[in-house]
Design goal:
The protein contains twelve helices and twelve strands. The protein has 379 residues and is of the alpha/beta class. Strands 3-2-1-4-8-6-9 form a seven-stranded mixed β-sheet, sandwiched between helices. A three-stranded mixed β-sheet has the order 5-10-7. A two-stranded antiparallel sheet has the order 11-12.
């Protein structure tokens, strides 16, 4: 009897997860059929880039922003130094550029608990653009990146998310990261396409200043270190009539580097997982908890199959095969966009690691302590 009850429970969790994946796939299909409009009038744009200790990347960042084909008099770039201890600030000051550029330092005592959000807010307060574009100092852009992102704005669009990808590498760890991260980006895109925005990446988001002010920006979560992207997007979707869009275009892709070490990867994922507890939608939290328990039960089935009843091996393998089939169909949308061509061996290894990584990251995110940019932070 206990076996039947457990198998029914595992089947319900599997169905819940596959339904979630199917909504992602359908959303991606809808995005594929939606073309961005041609820009007739170019709105003014403020690109806000907070940075901390980015001396290795920041010159490449500003160089690629200089090469944008967007009208030069229609966009400004505002760098905000978030207490760097290296030469990032000085390098920016010495860089000769024709950009409309500001380089700001955070004042003492300016919302000290919010870290990145305080830098973004400070940059917005010193900006003038109709549309705010958020990115990171370790990113590089195609020359028509900004034009492509802005072309995703229709009359009622208030927030636009766009793709981010890790740079290619022959290293196994980097390839796995690129595939896993690409899967997250595609999931966020598909959820937006299906009308249920949940996740996005702060390295490539934008929103109307009017909308940011309407939802009071980061006011209700300013003391949380993370969530400057997802909380804002979810608020705009839930509390206003403005629409959320995803710009699924290769020209809109932002490129950045994968984590150098497993420790950095772990800290990043723990930071991302920690903000899920503060989503305002109870049904969304329940949905995510259901997905977490699906992954937990994959491990449980494996253990039960080894030590209790071999039938749970069959349920485990069935769940994994169904999971891999649905996830592979989603990943196919990202080949050449957010990662290189999918290598079957990389995909299979990533699928084996995936349940353990989800459990570790999810449980680690509960305490909300992590290291980010060489600082120990609490959520």
């Amino acid at each position: 009897m206990i076996e039947i009850i457990l198998l029914i429970l595992f089947l319900i969790l599997l169905f819940h997860y596959l339904k979630f994946l199917n909504s992602v796939r359908l959303g991606l299909d809808l995005l594929r059929t939606k073309a961005n409009h041609r820009i007739i009038e170019y709105p003014s744009v403020s690109i806000i880039i907070p940075f901390r200790n980015e001396e290795e990347n920041i010159i490449k960042n500003i160089t690629s922003l200089e090469e944008q084909d967007y009208p030069r008099n229609k966009y400004e770039v505002i760098y905000v130094d978030d207490d760097s201890t290296d030469q990032s600030f000085e390098l920016l000051q010495r860089k000769v550029t024709s950009l409309n550029r500001q380089i700001l330092k955070m004042p003492e005592g300016f919302s000290p608990n919010s870290r990145k959000k305080r830098a973004i807010r400070y940059g917005i307060e010193h900006s003038e653009g109709e549309i705010i574009v958020g990115s990171d100092a370790d990113c590089e852009y195609n020359k028509n990146w900004l034009t492509t992102v802005i072309s995703a704005y229709e009359k009622k669009t208030g927030f636009v998310s766009a793709p981010v990808r890790f740079n290619s590498s022959d290293k196994f760890f980097d390839r796995i990261q690129q595939l896993e991260f690409g899967g997250l980006v595609l999931t966020g895109a598909g959820l937006i396409g299906s009308g249920t925005p949940i996740i996005c990446n702060a390295a490539n988001i934008s929103y109307r200043r009017e909308v940011f002010n309407q939802v009071l920006g980061f006011t209700d979560n300013i003391d949380l270190s993370s969530g400057d992207d997802e909380f804002l997007m979810q608020k705009i979707f839930k509390e206003t009539e403005w629409r959320v869009n995803f710009c699924l275009s290769e020209a809109a892709v932002v490129r950045t580097n994968p984590n150098k070490t497993v420790s950095q990867f772990y800290q990043q994922r723990k930071r991302w997982a920690s903000k899920g507890f503060f989503y305002k939608n109870p049904l969304l939290i329940l949905k995510l908890i259901g997905i977490f328990f699906f992954y937990l039960c994959l491990i449980v089935q494996l253990v039960l199959g080894a030590f209790y009843n071999s039938i749970f091996f069959i349920s485990f393998l069935s769940s994994m095969i169904a999971k891999m089939y649905f996830e592979f169909n989603i990943l196919r949308h990202g080949s050449g966009l957010v990662f290189d061509k999918i290598k079957l061996t990389d995909f299979l290894i990533a699928e084996i690691i995936h349940p353990f990584y989800i459990l570790i990251a999810g449980l680690s995110g509960v305490n909300g302590n992590f290291i980010w940019k060489d600082r120990k932070l609490k959520r």
